[in-house]
Amino acid sequence: MSQKSNFVFILKYLSKISLILVVLVSCKNSSKEINDFLADKNLPVGVSENVNLVRKDSGIIVSRMITPLYWDYTNKKLNPYYEFPKGVKIVTINRLSRDSVTVTGDYAISYANTAISEIIGHVVVVNHENGVVLNTDQMYWDQKEDYYFTEQPFTIYTEKDTMNGVGFESESNLNNWILNNTKGDFIVDQKEE
Question: Matching InterPro entries, A to Z (predicted)?
Fold first, then answer.
C-alpha cells in the first residue's frame, strides 16, 4: 500500500471515530429517559447472546442457565420480564455436584415481580436422580414455591410406568405429583394384610 492510500485510510478511520465521539458527547438523555423510550417502543433494555449463567449459594453452584438469546425487559413499569426467544436449558445441581433436574424448552418468559416462568414448546423435565421424565408443550414454574404446573397434555415416564394426562403439578424435583385426567399402564405394588 502506498503512503497516500495509507493516509486516506487513516483519515477515513479518524473521521468515523470523531463522528461517533460527537454523537456520544451530544447525547444528554438520562438513563431513565432511554429506558422509558425503549419501554414505549417495546424494545429490551438489554440483549445477550450465548448466555451461560451460573447461580451460587454460599459459594457452591446450585444451578446453570444456558440460552442462545436473552432479552431483558425489566424497563417495563407494570410487569418487567426476561424473555428467552430461542429456548432455554436450566440445570439444578445437588450438593454432590451432580445434575439433579434439567428443564429445556423452545421458548421461555420469566416475570420479575412474581418469579413465575412459562416454558413453551417441547418442554422436557428430567430428574437425573430417580429417572423420571416429563414431556409437555407448556409448563409454568413458580420459582418461589419451587413448583411446576400445567393444564396441557403431558406424558411422564418412570422406570416402570408411562402415564399420559391433561394437567400436572409437582415439586420442581418431579416428586409428589398431582396428575389429572390420567391414563396409561401402571404397576401397583399390593401388600397383603
Answer: LipoPS_assembly_LptC-rel, LptC
